[in-house]
Amino acid sequence: MEMEGRAMNGGGTGLASLPVEVLVRVLAPLQRQDWARAAQACTVLRAACISVLGTVTSLDLKNAGASLDDECFALLATRVGNRLRRLELDCWHLSDGALANVPEGLEELALCGCDHHSDEMLANVARRTHATLWRFAWSGFGGRVTAAGFQEIALKCRNITSFMIDAGPGMDVNSVVCAVASNCPALSELSAYDLTTKTFFHIFSCKVRLKRLRHKRRVGGALPVTDSTLSLLIRMCPLLEELHLVDKTDVDDTGNVTDSGLLALTERSSTLRTLKLKLASSSSAEHCSEVAVMELASSCKHLTHVELSNFKKLSDPPVYELIQRCPKLVDLTLDGTPITDASLDLLALHSRFLRCISIKGCKKLSEAGLKALGQCGILESVNAGQASGVTDAALIAICEGNPGLKSLVLSHGSLSDASLQSVAMCTHMEELALHGCSRISNSGLSLIAMGCVHLRFISLSYCDHISDSGVISLAIGCPRLVKVRLDGCRLLSNPSVRALCQYCPKLRHLSLQYCVKLSDNVFQHLLAAPSLRFVDLGRAKFTADGITSYQQQKPLVELYINGVLG
């Protein structure tokens, strides 16, 4: 303040008199969004912010919203320096040609929102990054991108060691992964879905030795989560560090995971750090005993991330073993298991590194067990959705004991506004799901709006007492919202939508099923949301003209009416 005073009196000691190097060092520790605010203050700070941008090595633009168009990205690309090595980019508002401006020298590139693009996008990426790219991630659901586009990436970017793809059902992912395996011999990390056994044999025939594998089965014919699968992967991945297998098909005729499969994993006890198995089939879950889980925990002492979801025989004793044998647990998921309060008590006492806990659907817990999580102290994510024992007292204990919480799911619990003051004290909160908590009202939403200003996702579906005034306060207080679910909130009408579209410029996903008071005027409000990609308006009454007019003006937005894509 003293410096500013002398500057105003002509003393020549204001910001303009400071070397740009000093300003850069002051600005560098700030968050990216703070640079944008500083740049608007004066021309001196604007110049300093541009200089800072030239020094960054990592840039996260996946939540940039509609402001990141072709022109903005081209300008940004000219200002980032040659030190930039890692870029995360939302391509929703970018054309294929915009990717011709991807900075050269990138080593890591993650593209999301690739829903209306073509192979030209991938050709531009390959041309700009062919000499340096080693980590590539792509997410898109639609458009005209084909397996051939990814084959060009594989042919030109032969140094790729990490490849991740998430796309719609029209993509031939097996061809893509085979091309990457054939041309990128150093591939060690793979994340994909619906790969077949034939594809995995091809991967290993190419002498690829995966260290990290994440695979999700969504359709029949893809690699199932069975004993034979575990044995295959263990045999062909001698350096396996991470294994994440998810089965979402609930198909019972492909085999099961039994004690034999779990015990086979002990062969990788010296290297395995992450083990996540999510079974879909209830019959498959019945074939694993507590003894096998205890043996696995006893052998794999270096595990830090564990998921054993829907293991119906996984109760307290094997969890005790896991906690005691794996003291550096960071992430633990035990969804749908019959654990009791005793497991949570022991977890709170002995897992001092634990950051994330998920006990979704665990029905043998009580308020006392959930309150024990408050003793952890450093939890960042808690998911107790549809678990028993969710009360105001439990929520207060969890939030007050873990002020650094960023993600909280306590859906279908006996919660009221009384406990939301504690939630509001968690000022780092980014994701909050309280759907089915019917006692929450507008007063509780006002508390959330005042405290959780960094929220990006919120679900309040079937919170019957929420009305427009509560949603309006939420929209004003939480302008960073990206995804909002308000299904079944029957008191809501057009003003709620208007507020969300007006005050939340990054809003992408909006679900308002069974909000029957909505009318055709809602489409005018939706037009004002520049980043919107997905809208579900459920069973409200709209005219054909209103729907058609919106679709003509926003052809890329997925609009669902009565469960049908418009």
From TrEMBL:
Q: Which residues form the F-box/LRR-repeat protein 15-like leucin rich repeat domain?
A: 225-547
Q: Please state what the protein is called.
A: F-box/LRR-repeat protein 15-like leucin rich repeat domain-containing protein
Which cellular component appears as one GO term in the record?
SCF ubiquitin ligase complex
Q: Which GO terms describe its biological process?
A: SCF-dependent proteasomal ubiquitin-dependent protein catabolic process
What Pfam family is a match for this entry? DUF7885
List the Gene3D superfamilies. Answer: Ribonuclease Inhibitor (3.80.10.10)
